[in-house]
TrEMBL record:
InterPro entries: Glyas_Bleomycin-R_OHBP_Dase, Glyas_Fos-R_dOase_dom, VOC_core. This is Catechol 2,3-dioxygenase-like lactoylglutathione lyase family enzyme. It comes from the Bacteria. The lineage of its organism: Bacteria, Bacillati, Bacillota, Bacilli, Bacillales. Gene3D superfamilies: 2,3-Dihydroxybiphenyl 1,2-Dioxygenase, domain 1. Residues 7-121 form the VOC domain. It comes from Scopulibacillus darangshiensis. Keywords: Dioxygenase, Lyase, Oxidoreductase. The keyword Iron does not apply.
Amino acid sequence: MCALIKAIDHVQVCIPPGNENKARKFYSDILGLPEIEKPDALKPKGGLWYQIGPLQLHIGVENMTRELGKRHVAFEVVDIEEARTLLNQKSIPIKNETPIPNVDRFSFRDPFGNRIELLQKVIVHPKKKA
């Protein structure tokens, strides 16, 4: 199956009906993501779309429970500490994630309970032999 999958095109998280303005405030104003226009055929379903480099983030509308599960999107950032500072200034609670090799990361929740992970890959230089 893996040979058939070329790349990730988009990730979708969800918001309850009627919350597009609240989502736009978070994703556009706080995170600074550029919103793109949805195809006309999908506009009646509500929601928002964002372009992030070659990928898209789709904010879909559905009736949601309050369960805070593992659903998430992970964004690679240029400077993890700058991102942490920005979110702290906006009073967004941050959760330090379990450490994994060569990655600095943390997560937070959007206003709808979707988990967002930010990560920065750490370049490890091999030690020179003496």
